[in-house]
Specification:
With 672 residues, the protein is α/β, with parallel strands linked by helices. It folds into four domains: 94 residues, Nucleic acid-binding proteins (OB fold (Dihydrolipoamide Acetyltransferase, E2P), Beta Barrel); 85 residues, no CATH class; 187 residues, P-loop containing nucleotide triphosphate hydrolases (Rossmann fold); 155 residues, Rossmann fold. Helices cover 37% and strands 18% of the residues. The strands form four sheets. The chain has a seven-stranded parallel sheet, sandwiched between helices. Strand 22, helix 18 and strand 23 form a beta-alpha-beta unit. Helix 7 packs across helix 22 and helix 9 runs parallel beside helix 10. 42% of the residues are buried.
Length: 672
């Protein structure tokens, strides 16, 4: 059976089970083989009943002494009991409402039992153990992520079936590289990641598979970086940074000056600038971006700035229009809700070269958007786009300069992986006058006091936010929905105040109307979902309450908190949660440093959940861990660099599988 065949054709699956497996992301035989265990049970060390440690998951060997007896103790609860012996001591076994397991145990047969032993003195018992018939040997058994209708043991059986009936996988890593780094071949690694022969073999299998994931990732990113270093037709003739700085009503921070200098120097060269400007909330990335746009315009070139949401695009339009109000730089705004006639006019002026800067959403990468002399392609909140969409904007010009901005602080190790094709500038200074936002974690019992504190600020002429994770009731009954909360607060606690509602399901025109009203001060309190996470800049907003704070990642909470504290007034963020997550949420209360928070978020949630959704155009990390596999990252990076120095195109039959695999993973950035 071919590895890319549908999983429904594997013995023991079929249409129904295939639908269940799809919920786990398993669609093919290969998906199943690379659906790695989340942990393991060690059945290799077998204890006697007498010597087994109590209240720990351990394995014992025993012979069933009698058939399971049924005990109905109350309606809806039936116990099934038996006892086993290892020849020295007895062990009571109990199953709860599980006649299936009880019937599988046959009197007189020997089994391995895995579970926790409890008891006092000579009495020992084990509740609901896992068990298998034994030939006298144990082993290390895999435990898989599971879903309704498909438990770990069922997946284990299917994986065994896949090894039995599936073709042997071909290894994309050439033998020479495997030998250099002492790596297992792929087939052995897959066998030992699922069914390890020993703890050492499991360790070696993990090392091999982690190396492969990171090696393929580094090869793709380094190839992209090499491609982007080819000559550009848009090198700047002069640096106009000093002229731009004279337009500003404020002094740039040293970090901003350094980032602008680095980028401006890149743009004077004959190769394209490819730079990530990463900074915490409010660190001034837009001013850095504006300086480079100004440079392009003064050199006779065009720029494009792509944002992930219309709200953020509109915010950038307002900010940059203010920066350039005393210049002759022309700006256009192009989003999904731009009227048809206006779209037509903007597209024509871009093609003719009349518009110097266009700001927009995904609308910018539509086929009919053409530029006369695009020199700078900027993407903001890059993790919401990904490699392919960045490439689409880039393709609108003749190898233009690329600036990527991210207000989501990313640990440096992770940034090097995700943005491995970019140079890095970090804004680690805050503009003068910015106050630290005080953050408090409270339980729902004192919600009314928290709302009273919000009311106090509103009465003093300030504005605020109340953020909740859902739009409508029903998805999760315990969650506070924005619509319901807005109505409840408007008619209740905040009756008489001017409230507004903002969420992602609203029409663009309605969103704009609400934001304009909030920005002008007409709306005092904005009830919102995470649509305000980026791009909202209202200095008079100084108070925020976040409902069900446990529903958010730390980095997302930090982004939300960044909507306040944007002026010179002291600001306060109140997190409301009754979940048992005080340690995690207290991280946010203890620091305003986004990079520290990002580190903690990555440790607590792992790279798969760090951004809330996977990077478009980048391969998913199934086994590598960005926080713990630092040495493997460095090893894979070195291996990829060395290989590409010798063979930049990965040409030749020996590298065909490797080249194809990288092409498959980076389908938008072909290496042909």
């Amino acid at each position: 059976m071919e590895l890319r065949s549908s999983i429904k054709y594997l013995k023991g699956v079929g249409e129904k089970r295939a639908a269940v497996l799809a919920k786990l992301g398993i669609f093919t035989l290969w998906d199943l083989l690379t659906f790695y265990p989340r942990t393991y049970e060690d059945w290799s060390k077998i204890y006697s009943i007498k010597d087994a440690p109590l209240n720990e998951n351990i394995c014992i060997r025993g012979i069933v002494g009698m058939p399971c007896r049924e005990h109905r103790i109350r309606k809806g609860m039936t116990l099934y009991k038996t006892e086993v012996t290892d020849g020295e001591m007895l062990l009571d076994i109990t199953f709860f409402n599980n006649p299936y397991s009880a019937k599988k145990l046959e009197q007189g047969k020997e089994y391995l039992f895995f579970g926790k032993i409890t008891g006092k003195g000579y009495y020992r018992s084990m509740n609901s153990p896992d068990f298998v018939e034994t030939d006298g040997s144990g082993g290390i058994r895999p435990i898989y992520p599971q879903t309704a209708g498909m438990n770990s043991r069922a997946i284990e059986k299917l994986v065994k079936s896949a090894f039995e009936y599936g073709e042997k996988p071909t290894d994309p890593i050439p033998e020479e590289i495997r030998n250099s780094y002492c790596l297992m071949n792929l087939s052995d690694a897959l066998q030992n990641i699922h069914f390890p022969q020993s703890a050492d073999m499991l360790s070696e299998a993990r090392r091999r598979l982690i190396f492969e994931e990171l090696f393929l990732l580094e090869l793709g990113l380094l190839r992209m970086k090499t491609k982007s270093r080819q000559s550009t037709a848009v090198s700047m003739k002069k640096d106009y940074t000093d002229e731009f700085r004279s337009l500003l009503p404020f002094e740039l921070t040293n970090a901003q000056k350094k980032a602008i200098s680095q980028a401006a120097e890149d743009m004077l060269l004959g190769t394209p600038m490819n730079r990530l400007v990463q900074g915490d909330v409010g660190s001034g990335k837009t001013a850095v971006c504006a300086a480079l746009i100004y440079n392009c315009a003064r050199n006779g070139y065009q720029s494009a700035l792509m944002a992930p949401t219309e709200v953020l695009a509109m915010q950038h339009y307002k900010t940059l229009a203010k920066f350039f109000e005393n210049t002759d730089i022309t700006i256009g705004l192009l989003t999904g809700s731009t009227p048809a006639a206006e779209k037509k006019r903007i597209k024509a002026s871009l093609k003719s070269g009349e518009t110097d800067l266009v700001i927009g959403t995904h609308a910018l990468i539509q086929k009919d958007v053409e530029f006369d002399r695009l020199a700078l392609a900027v993407t903001d909140e890059q993790h919401r786009f990904g490699v392919n969409q960045r490439n689409s904007l880039h393709s609108k010009g003749q190898n233009p300069h690329t600036l990527v901005m991210s207000a989501t602080p990313i640990p440096r190790t992770l940034a090097l992986i995700i943005y491995g094709d970019l140079d890095l500038s970090i804004l680690d200074e805050m503009p003068k006058g910015r106050q630290k936002t005080e953050t408090y974690l409270v339980t729902p019992e004192i919600r009314e006091r928290a709302y009273g504190y919000v009311k106090k600020h509103l009465c003093e002429g300030r504005q605020g936010y109340i953020v909740c994770p859902l739009v409508e009731e029903g998805e999760t009954s315990e969650m506070t929905a924005a619509n319901a909360l807005f109505k409840e607060l408007s008619d209740g606690f905040f009756k008489g105040f001017r409230l507004g509602l903002l969420h992602g399901k609203m029409k663009s025109a309605d969103k704009k109307a609400v934001m304009d009203s909030f920005s002008s001060g007409n709306i005092q309190l904005l009830v919102s979902t995470t649509v305000i996470e980026v791009g909202i800049d209202v200095p008079n907003a100084v108070i925020m309450v976040i409902e069900n704070a446990e529903r958010f990642g730390l980095s997302q909470l930090h982004q939300l908190r960044g909507r306040i504290g944007r002026g010179t007034e002291k600001s306060t963020c109140i997190l409301i949660s009754d979940a048992d997550e005080t340690e995690r949420l207290n991280v946010l209360a203890s620091t305003n440093d986004g990079f520290k928070i990002a580190d903690e978020d990555l440790k607590l949630r792992g790279p798969g959940d760090f951004f809330g959704s996977r990077q478009h155009g980048l391969p998913e990390m199934k086994i590598a861990n960005m926080m713990t596999d630092g040495e493997a990252i460095r090893e894979a990076h070195t291996a990829a660099e060395n290989l590409l120095k010798k063979n930049p195109a990965l040409s030749g039959e020996e590298f065909a599988l490797l080249r194809n695999e990288v092409n498959r993973l980076f389908s938008g950035g072909s290496m042909n």
